């Protein structure tokens, strides 16, 4: 009987973890989308400035009127912090998805074990 009670507690714990991760997943999804949008916005602003001939500081080097073929690469380099933030937000979202899948697998295993317990 104790084993059945312990299994019920473990199942309840797994359910709570799934609920927590589901809520976290929504938050992380919003953060990832926001970070990606911020990167796109930063990149667009820098590209416009470069194409308008504005001087920009690229890590101690002044850049003005770069060739069109290199403008996008320079702009991406200048927006590296926003890109890093977007990449980390995406990584956190994917990690949470993996944790959620793992928690669901654990719950499934516990439910399967629970079916075969001798309850009298």
Task: Describe the protein in words.
It contains three helices and two strands; from the N terminus they run H-E-E-H-H. Helix content is 81%, strand content 5%. The model has no long low-confidence stretch (mean pLDDT 92). The chain has helices at residues 2-51, 68-78, 80-115, and strands at 56-58, 61-63. Helix 1 (2-51) packs across helix 2 (68-78) and helix 1 (2-51) runs antiparallel to helix 3. The protein has 120 residues and is mainly alpha-helical. The protein is rod-shaped. It has one domain.
Which key phrases capture this entry?
120 residues; two-stranded antiparallel sheet; 2 strands; rod-shaped
């Amino acid at each position: 009987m104790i084993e059945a009670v312990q299994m019920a507690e473990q199942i309840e714990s797994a359910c709570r973890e799934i609920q927590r991760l589901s809520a976290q997943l929504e938050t992380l999804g919003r953060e990832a989308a926001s970070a990606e949008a911020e990167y796109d916005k930063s990149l667009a602003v820098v590209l416009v400035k470069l194409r308008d001939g504005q001087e920009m500081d690229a890590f101690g080097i002044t850049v003005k009127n770069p060739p069109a073929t290199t403008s996008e690469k320079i702009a991406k380099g200048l927006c590296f912090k926003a890109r890093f933030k977007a990449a980390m937000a995406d990584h956190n979202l994917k990690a949470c998805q993996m944790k959620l899948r793992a928690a669901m697998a654990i719950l499934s295993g516990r439910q399967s074990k629970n079916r075969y317990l001798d309850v009298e």
